[in-house]
Write a structure and sequence with these properties.
The complex is a heterodimer of chains A (262) and B (357). Chain A is mainly alpha-helical and 262 residues long. Chain A has 13 helices and no strands. Chain A has a domain of 165 residues: MetI-like (MetI-like fold). Chain B is built from nine helices and 20 strands. Classes of the chains: A mainly alpha (262), B alpha+beta (357).
Chain lengths: 262, 357
């Protein structure tokens, strides 16, 4: 009996906390009607915001996938002075508030900033927004790939070497297929984090409508402007994307060890 | 000469793993490197394959100096202890991998894979993934993969280590048959003397990074030069002795000196008596070989096909192996007084520490 009470309690708590907002979003959305929603989504500002969010997220995914695998490789395969410190620093984006990340970018690269002479304008620009998005979503690929890479015994690579394969070919044909599920999982997490980013992007980009306004910033501004239908519409799009990512994550989640024949 | 190692040396800091090893292996030979765990035998294999860089010395394969070449250019097939099959590839794909790397045309590749699957008697299992194969099957695929490119040399690092006894015996026969059929020069590393005896044309005994001695299984078993070899290859009763004139003195006993042991005259030697070469009788006249003396039975133990009898001869304890039928016939019990004789014995220079005797 106690067991069922506990299960009921946990499910109710999680259900209300996690699913109720999504449900509320959909119910509110239907009140407006699909035509109104479609019109709200297809306004130039909304489309630009969605476009910018997608561009930032995709660029962030590309950069963090390549760099994430490289960083994971260096951390797992190489010994160097300060490795433990570097390994800890990789998790910094998990603990630093995104707003602070955006603020630091302005402090560094703003007009009065220490690095104001930097050739590329980073403060209040999409380049700066990309930089902070890359920062906040940096650890996902790294942390997914590292344990898998560490578990690969050197013999697999050595076997490939004795069969004539170069280091590059060995990485592509032997290691990458093993790492691929964890890389994909990292990519999906990076995508989710990047699409949902608000604080860092809002501060670093300044939230200029049609220029540095992402979908999340658009929702915030629409609410401030009492444009409820606009806020809801984009929120639903972002919500649907999140659900899609969630399904993808569950599908890609690394499987338990396969059964072996003795 | 197929494989030529010249004074090869490998160390990690102060720890010497391979100590000045020189070895020549003939074409088509199956050479077994035998030694305990940590003796450096696997490192020698890795040095030959180029998987571990050499500190000093030279390695030549079929007359080609490969000492500084990467593993990709050595033309060596390597079978790892845990097989290291590529888990995301089928057995066929594993075997074909090296051929793909060498850009062998698809039709030729497929023909070679089929040929190898037949060779390892797994024609119907080519589409299976490693996790769908048993340990023995995985081992056979690993051998086929290593042979696919027709390597000059095949290196096997404890290839039967992870298998149970019955499968191991079967796979040993398979491997020997394949090796004989293909004539590929092979080095196999093992710590199992039974495996070494069954497979080897010649055995190299290694301990503490040093290659102690090399010989045929029979030579090393019956006439080892080194105490370590005598004790590592089966059981040996070893006793201090000295050779003088045509006799060997073992305490108060003296026996005719074995042939070709003149060089041991005047230096400390040990007499090696294999347990199965010692005979037991109730009367000295029943002994066929030289009489060792009268001893007391202290223990009888079942040892499979034979029976192990522990006896006390003066202050020396000896292990003797006799047939259970003989044991029943003699009716011996612990405490009984019996006579010991020996038909075959061997002398080796006293070398308790390092260096070949």
């Amino acid at each position: 009996m106690r067991k069922f009470v506990l299960i009921g309690l946990v499910l109710s708590y999680a259900g209300v906390l996690l699913l109720a907002p999504m449900l509320a979003l959909v119910i509110n959305l239907l009140e407006y009607g699909l035509d109104t929603i479609w019109a709200a989504i297809t306004t130039p500002e909304a489309l630009l915001a969605l476009r910018l969010s997608l561009i930032l997220a995709l660029c962030s995914v590309m950069i963090n996938t390549v760099m994430g695998v490289l960083i994971a490789w260096v951390l797992v395969r190489h010994q160097f002075w300060g490795k433990r410190f570097f390994n800890a620093v990789v998790d910094l984006p998990f603990v630093v508030s995104p707003v602070i990340v955006g603020y630091v970018l302005i402090v560094l690269f703003g007009r009065q900033g220490w690095l104001s002479g930097f050739p590329v304008q980073l403060a209040f620009s999409t380049a700066g927004m990309l930089l902070v998005t890359v920062f906040v979503s940096l650890p996902f690929v790294i942390r997914e790939v590292m344990p898998v890479l560490a578990a690969i015994t050197p013999e697999q690579e050595e076997a490939a070497f004795t069969l004539g394969a170069s280091h590059t070919l060995t990485f592509r044909r032997i290691l990458l297929p093993i790492l691929w599920p964890s890389i994909l999982y990292g990519i999906v997490l990076t995508l989710a984090r990047s699409l949902g980013e608000f604080g860092a992007a809002a501060v670093a980009g300044g939230g200029v409508q049609g220029v540095t306004e992402t979908a999340t910033i658009y929702v915030y501004r629409a609410l401030q402007d009492r444009n409820d239908v606009g806020a809801y519409s984009i929120a639903v799009i972002l919500g649907l994307m999140a659900v899609g990512i969630l399904i993808l994550m569950n599908w890609l989640r690394p499987q338990e060890g396969k059964k072996h024949v003795d | 000469m197929s494989i030529n190692l010249t004074n090869i040396h490998k160390g990690y800091g102060a720890q010497v793993v391979v100590d000045d090893v020189s070895l020549e292996i003939e074409s088509g030979e199956l050479f077994v490197l035998l030694g305990p765990s940590g003796s450096g035998k696997s490192t020698i294999l890795r040095l030959i394959a180029g998987l571990t860089p050499l500190d000093q010395g030279g390695i030549a394969l079929h007359g080609r100096d490969v000492s500084l070449l990467p593993p990709q250019q050595r033309g060596v097939g390597f079978v790892f202890q845990n097989y290291s099959l590529f888990q995301h590839m089928t057995a066929e794909q594993n075997i074909a991998f090296g051929l793909e790397v060498k850009r062998v045309p698809r039709s030729e590749r497929q023909a070679r894979v089929t040929e190898l699957l037949q060779l390892i008697e797994m024609e119907t299992m080519g589409k299976r993934y490693p996790h769908q194969l048993s340990g023995g099957q995985q081992q056979r695929v690993a051998v086929a993969r290593a042979l696919a490119q027709r390597p000059e040399v095949l290196l096997l690092d404890e290839p039967f280590g992870a298998l149970d006894v019955k499968i191991r015996a079967q796979l040993r026969q398979n491997l020997r048959a394949i090796q004989t059929q293909l004539g590929v020069t092979t080095i196999l590393v093992t710590h199992d003397q039974e495996e070494a005896f069954e497979l080897a044309d010649r055995i190299g005994v290694i301990d503490g990074g040093k290659l102690l001695e090399v010989g045929t299984p029979d030579q090393l078993y019956r006439a080892p030069k080194h105490r370590f070899t005598a004790t590592f290859l089966g059981n040996a009763n070893l006793f201090p002795a000295h050779r003088n004139g045509s006799k060997v003195y073992l305490g108060d006993q003296h026996l005719p000196a074995p042939p070709d042991t003149d060089h041991l005259t005047g230096q400390p030697v040990e007499m090696m008596l294999r347990p199965e070469s010692i005979e037991i009788a109730l009367n000295p006249t029943d002994l066929k070989g030289s009489v060792l003396g009268q001893a007391t039975v202290t223990q009888l133990a079942f040892a499979g096909a034979l029976e192990r009898v522990t006896v006390q001869l003066e202050d020396r304890v000896l292990q003797v192996l006799i047939h259970p039928a003989q044991s029943r016939q003699l009716g011996i019990r612990p405490g009984d007084r019996i006579w010991l004789g020996v038909q075959e014995y061997h002398l080796l220079a006293t070398n308790h520490h390092s260096g070949a005797g």
